[in-house]
Amino acid sequence: MRFLPTRVHGVIDYLWGIALMASPWLFGFADVPAATWVTIVFGAGAILYSAFTAYELGVLKILPMPIHLILDGLGGIVLAASPFLFGFADQVLWPHVLFGLFSVVACFVTRLEPILTTGRREPA
Known about the structure:
The protein is built from four helices and no strands. By secondary structure, it is an all-alpha fold. It has one domain. The model has no long low-confidence stretch (mean pLDDT 94).
């Protein structure tokens, strides 16, 4: 069931990206290079493709929302698996898993099209 408006998803995208990039210092794993770089790359990547997404908070509005959500889902899976893929699961696990799962859930609950202020859906 897709109940999350794209406008709210957009706000979450930017906050999620910033929080993910700050997480090594917030959660105390900045001394684990692989874990730190994964969060910085994924956070910056999410902010970048959000800026290119065709929704209310997109800057260039090139990337269709369904493609954005696919990137969220696939990126979330890789982020959640990254402690195992990059060999730092014994040092840092939960921030990557939880941020990744959040991204996967968001891709399934967000509406596929922005809604105009009149309540009509924006044409594709």
